[in-house]
Design a protein that fits this description.
Distance between the termini: 48 Å
Radius of gyration: 28 Å
Shape: elongated
Largest sheet: 5 strands, mixed
Structural class: alpha/beta
Number of strands: 7
Helix content: 55-70%
Number of helices: 16
């Protein structure tokens, strides 16, 4: 076998080839992170049989994703290595050296010394899930910021409005009103028929003429500033929120499509839907990365923190909350749904509550139990069965 180590960077990568005896067959060479660079790499590897090559690279943000996908599409055996593993090899060197060329050699050596599982089609799909779920999380955070900003604008222009609608100002009916007219004085002078039709259409018949009448009276008594320049900011903030909603819907469609293609056993867990399943699979990745369920717990930050000094050791500590926030959120949310849909988990939740744990503390314990079950299911590819 021949081992190819690739050190990943933003613009340029370095690659080196070792034989199974540790002989350097190709000194580290540089190639760019584009089509011409990828062709240079293929040209350098053309003298070797494809089946005899194992290519390895470190997991380095997103910079290596294109190369992994490209090489996988050409049926090369590609392994993604944890940087911690190559860091251990680097420490064993007598001289303290850290360069791109040395790193390429160390990655190839890591492949030679320790077996690594090649990337599969499932890994590529899970990589897409991870990217989509994290992008959706950013969309939701941006939408939340836009909603907070919108609320501050309405507080200045028409402060009474957010208490008029039972669902607050963040509803389709209120958005339709604010996009057309947001200044209280203009709302008060609107023709009643026009205002009624506007609210009725936007709310799908929920708001009728009586609502429009009450709204006009409220607008007449408003203590808002009447600053019409704020109405522009209100309208554009609503457009941003609606854009985030549309984008979120498109992302959810893609996530559901990938999850259907994967047909993962995680979907057999009662209460776990496509979104929660996608977040869990995307963040965990290949389950073989973890040698024990406790390591998945630690990766999610659901493991208990340790507080010890001298002879003192705390018996009750909070969860560490280190690691993947998105995975922790998905597991807690999934645990809540599973408790509502499975008798075994409901009994376990009730037991923890009876022991004096709060609701969220009990859910944390249920999430830990769920992680152990998910670990077994994904490791052995077995469906959920606790009945």
């Amino acid at each position: 076998m021949f081992y190819v180590g690739i050190d990943i960077a933003k613009l340029h990568h370095f690659a080196s080839v070792l034989s199974s005896d540790g002989e350097v067959l190709s000194e580290p060479f540089e190639f760019s992170n584009d089509y011409d660079g990828f062709q240079k790499l293929l040209s350098a590897l053309s003298s070797f049989e494809k089946d005899s090559l194992i290519i390895g690279l470190e997991s380095t943000a997103h910079y290596g994703n294109n190369l992994v996908t490209y090489l996988f599409s050409l049926d090369f055996k590609v392994c993604v290595i944890n940087p911690i593993q190559t860091a251990t090899l680097r420490k064993n060197n007598i001289r303290k050296t850290k360069t791109d060329k040395v790193d390429a050699y160390l990655i190839a050596k890591e492949l030679m010394l320790y077996p690594h599982r090649p990337v599969s089609e499932v890994d590529v799909q899970i990589m897409k899930l991870k990217q989509l779920c994290r992008f959706r999380h950013k969309l939701l955070k941006a939408r939340t910021r836009a909603k907070i900003q919108l609320t501050s604008y309405v507080d200045q222009l028409f402060p009474e409005l957010q208490y008029f609608f039972k669902s607050g100002i963040h509803s389709k009916g209120c958005y339709a009103l604010l996009k057309e007219v947001a200044v209280p004085q203009d709302i008060a002078s609107m023709h009643l028929t026009h205002l009624t039709n506007l609210l009725r259409k936007a709310s799908h018949g929920h708001f009728q003429k009586d609502t429009a009448q009450k709204l006009r009276v409220l607008a007449q008594k408003s203590v808002g500033t009447g600053n019409k320049s704020i109405s522009i900011q209100i309208a554009q903030s609503i457009e941003q929120i609606e854009l985030y909603d549309r984008q979120n819907g498109e992302v959810l469609v893609q996530i559901e499509s990938i999850m259907k293609d994967l047909d993962s056993v995680i979907m057999t867990i009662p209460g776990i839907g496509y979104l929660n399943g996608a977040m869990i699979l995307g963040e965990i990745g290949e389950i073989s990365r973890f040698s024990h369920p406790s390591k998945v717990l630690a990766f999610a930050g659901l493991d208990p923190s340790v507080h010890q000094s001298g002879n003192f050791k705390a018996n009750h500590t909070r969860m560490s909350k280190r690691g993947s926030k998105l995975l922790r959120y998905a597991l807690i949310n999934a645990a809540h749904n599973v408790v509502r849909n499975n008798k075994t988990f409901k009994a376990y939740y009730d037991l923890k509550v009876a022991e004096g744990h709060s609701h969220y503390s009990a859910l944390g314990h249920c999430a830990g139990k769920l992680v152990r079950i998910i670990y077994k299911m994904l490791s052995c590819n077995v469906s959920f069965n606790l009945e």
